[in-house]
Amino acid sequence: MSFLSSGAILITGGAGFVGSNLAIGLKKRFPGLSIIALDNLKRRGSEFNVPRLLDFSIQFIHGDVRNQEDLINLPKAPSLIIECSAEPSVMAGYAGSHAYMINSNLSGSINCFELARHHHAAIIFLSTSRVYPHEQINKLIFDETANRFELDDQSRLPGISHRGVAENFPIHGRRTLYGATKYASELLLTEYSDMFNIPYVINRCGVIAGPWQMGKIDQGVFALWMAAHVFKHSLRYVGYGGMGKQVRDVLHIDDLLELIIYQTTNMASVQSKTYNVGGGTANAISLRELTQLCREISGNEIHIESDLSNRPGDVKWYITDNSYVMKDTSWNVKANTERIMTNIWEWIRRHETELKPYLRC
Ligand SMILES: NC(=O)c1ccc[n+]([C@@H]2O[C@H](COP(=O)([O-])OP(=O)(O)OC[C@H]3O[C@@H](n4cnc5c(N)ncnc54)[C@H](O)[C@@H]3O)[C@@H](O)[C@H]2O)c1
């Protein structure tokens, strides 16, 4: 079952970082493809991506997934919906904007599933590692080394190994409103698929990074970190001792694109599966180490303050165990952290003047 030959591909959140890169990447690879990018341009900087989409003959619809009417009046019926719209900031749910998060991330997703039902379309759902409760992750045992937190061998929970967090990690516990809206959408998608025969695949992504990410303090930290080095803004290490020892694995957007192409062209083999998708152990890096990398690439050294207060819902460590997705598909991670950060640096340098107001710390 391939969605590259029939109908249109609708990418919701299509002017966002992930959505726009997937839309353009798919169009470059398959020029005959009809792609519709729908976005309400809520994310500051997403408007910057609209001319890029148009340059690649991708149809842009200024629409909102919260409104069924915006979805139903599309110029062409979709055979595949790639759901990338979201309020993706964990912090947003704490800053008084929780209603928007629930309405977009949950009601908006349901509207997309309804659209899939209406058109007998398949869904690729962009979910998050944040479905795994922070309560459970912070129960693990970590060793503190000079530059990072490392998982201690004595950490014993299902789904945990030296490779990171696998899909059978405990799912019970508090996970932030962001994680909850995503997990609730996953559950509903499973039921929609069962009741209405909608093919779907869920990708629980760790941190994704690369060019065209409008990084801000609460989301898109890799782009933000490099931007601060280019524009010589100061930064802060927040929480867990304020030393920047928190660890994340990072995936290049181009690597995610390759997986989405695989899933789009092999839906029958990935159908009804839920995968953890991320950079993995080789791409795990602490903020301190990221600072060092940014210094080396940009040649600039900036002031970094220390803030001892922990952020609600934050985790000391998260690394994706990609074993399942790699075993099930021919996909693997190609870009290392150095390439990811170099690509971000090159992008910022190419568009320095236009990006300066967007990439503020
Ligand atoms: N970037 C990451 O590190 C990461 C990690 C895990 C999961 N994800 C998931 O990937 C998806 C894309 O994230 P991203 O990094 O591109 O974020 P983004 O903020 O860059 O893109 C999301 C887009 O959705 C749009 N949007 C928000 N509310 C909308 C609404 N009601 N109707 C229509 N459009 C709306 C925004 O304007 C934005 O352009 C999200 O579902 C996110 O949860 C991202």
Structural commentary:
It is a single chain. This protein has helices spanning 17-29, 50-55, 68-72, 98-119, 134-137, 176-196, 221-231, 253-265, 267-270, 287-298, 323-328, 337-350, 352-355; strands at residues 8-12, 34-39, 59-62, 78-83, 122-128, 142-144, 149-151, 160-161, 164-165, 200-205, 207-209, 235-238, 247-252, 273-277, 284-286, 304-307, 317-318. With 361 residues, it is of the alpha/beta class. The chain has one domain: 3-Layer(aba) Sandwich (Rossmann fold). Strands 3-2-1-4-5-10-14 form a 7-stranded parallel β-sheet, with helices on both faces. Strands 11, 13, 15 and 17 form a 4-stranded mixed β-sheet that branches. Strands 6-7 form a two-stranded antiparallel sheet. Strand 4, helix 4 and strand 5 (122-128) form a beta-alpha-beta unit. Helix 4 runs parallel beside helix 6 and helix 7 crosses helix 10 (287-298). The radius of gyration is 19 Å and the shape is globular. The mean pLDDT is 95. Residues 12-13, 15-19, 39-43, 46, 64-66, 84-88, 104, 108, 126, 128, 205, 207-208 line the site of nicotinamide-adenine-dinucleotide.
Strand and helix map with partners:
Blueprint: E1 8-12, H1 17-29, E2 34-39, H2 50-55, E3 59-62, H3 68-72, E4 78-83, H4 98-119, E5 122-128, H5 134-137, E6 142-144, E7 149-151, E8 160-161, E9 164-165, H6 176-196, E10 200-205, E11 207-209, H7 221-231, E12 235-238, E13 247-252, H8 253-265, H9 267-270, E14 273-277, E15 284-286, H10 287-298, E16 304-307, E17 317-318, H11 323-328, H12 337-350, H13 352-355
Parallel strand pairs: 1-2, 1-4, 2-3, 4-5, 5-10, 10-14, 11-13, 12-16, 13-17
Antiparallel strand pairs: 6-7, 8-9, 13-15
Helix pairs in contact: 1-8, 4-6, 7-10, 7-12, 10-12
The structure holds nicotinamide-adenine-dinucleotide.
